[in-house]
Amino acid sequence: MFYLHFSNTQMLAKQHKTNIELQQIKEALEQENANKLKFFASVTHELRTPLNAIIGFAELIKNETLGSMDNSQYKEYADDIYNAGTHLLTLINDVLDFSKAESSSLTVEKVKFNLNKIIDSCVNMLLPKLKEAGINLKKEMTNKQLLVIADPKRMKQVIINLLSNSIKFTPKDGLIRMVIKENIEKNLLTIEFHDNGIGIMQQDIYKVMSVFGQADSGYRNEGTGIGLPLSKKLVELMGGTFDIKSEAKLGTTITLNFFYEEQTCEDSIDF
């Protein structure tokens, strides 16, 4: 009897010690994560100010605000500075948005707006990049106005992120399909992004959906790798769903679902 009591006491003491150790590990990981998010927020704020200045001065040179420049090479340099600065600012904003989303401090609007105009704007913005990469984009959607309930600014950010990701991993002469479908019974609007790029192995999908994660592929690409996880968080904050399916060497399909209303745009916000 004494032996059983002693064994139970030992077991309980061991379990208590294990619980304390697990709690300490949990707290350490939570603190590490909090420090990481705080660091990212601090860095992005510090870098954003000089980058805005770089872009501003580059615009002055590019637009020849202070007078004509005889050497056209200066304008080419200004274009390079402006494009690089704009790209870096976009990356920084993505990191800052993700850190806010992780700490539950990122807010989104939920308003009704015309999705057609947002999509057309995003596609037009990316036409130079598509042309440079030699990739075709096919847009499949109805001509009627589609009213979606979400955040128009964040929706634009998501669409540009996802199309840019497809462009990055699709080879020359490849095809990207953007399909917008309605499910009237469920009041759902589905946006699909299909590409025939390098794809991702099934076991690697979790890597590209985690912060800075990149699946192993035939070549490396620049970027933070934050575009997909940020897009997923933004979609979910807007009340939508985000799904990704991919096969290595065959391509990737990303599907978004949002609530929408089928009516005129008289009471919607125009962007």
UniProtKB/TrEMBL annotation:
<keyword id="KW-0597">Phosphoprotein</keyword>
<dbReference type="InterPro" id="IPR003594">
    <property type="entry name" value="HATPase_dom"/>
</dbReference>
<dbReference type="InterPro" id="IPR005467">
    <property type="entry name" value="His_kinase_dom"/>
</dbReference>
<keyword id="KW-0808">Transferase</keyword>
<keyword id="KW-0902">Two-component regulatory system</keyword>
<protein>
    <recommendedName>
        <fullName>histidine kinase</fullName>
        <ecNumber>2.7.13.3</ecNumber>
    </recommendedName>
</protein>
<dbReference type="InterPro" id="IPR036890">
    <property type="entry name" value="HATPase_C_sf"/>
</dbReference>
<dbReference type="InterPro" id="IPR004358">
    <property type="entry name" value="Sig_transdc_His_kin-like_C"/>
</dbReference>
<dbReference type="Pfam" id="PF00512">
    <property type="entry name" value="HisKA"/>
</dbReference>
<keyword id="KW-0418">Kinase</keyword>
<feature type="domain" description="Histidine kinase">
    <location>
        <begin position="42"/>
        <end position="262"/>
    </location>
</feature>
<dbReference type="InterPro" id="IPR003661">
    <property type="entry name" value="HisK_dim/P_dom"/>
</dbReference>
<dbReference type="Pfam" id="PF02518">
    <property type="entry name" value="HATPase_c"/>
</dbReference>
<dbReference type="InterPro" id="IPR050736">
    <property type="entry name" value="Sensor_HK_Regulatory"/>
</dbReference>
<dbReference type="InterPro" id="IPR036097">
    <property type="entry name" value="HisK_dim/P_sf"/>
</dbReference>
<dbReference type="GO" id="GO:0000155">
    <property type="term" value="F:phosphorelay sensor kinase activity"/>
</dbReference>
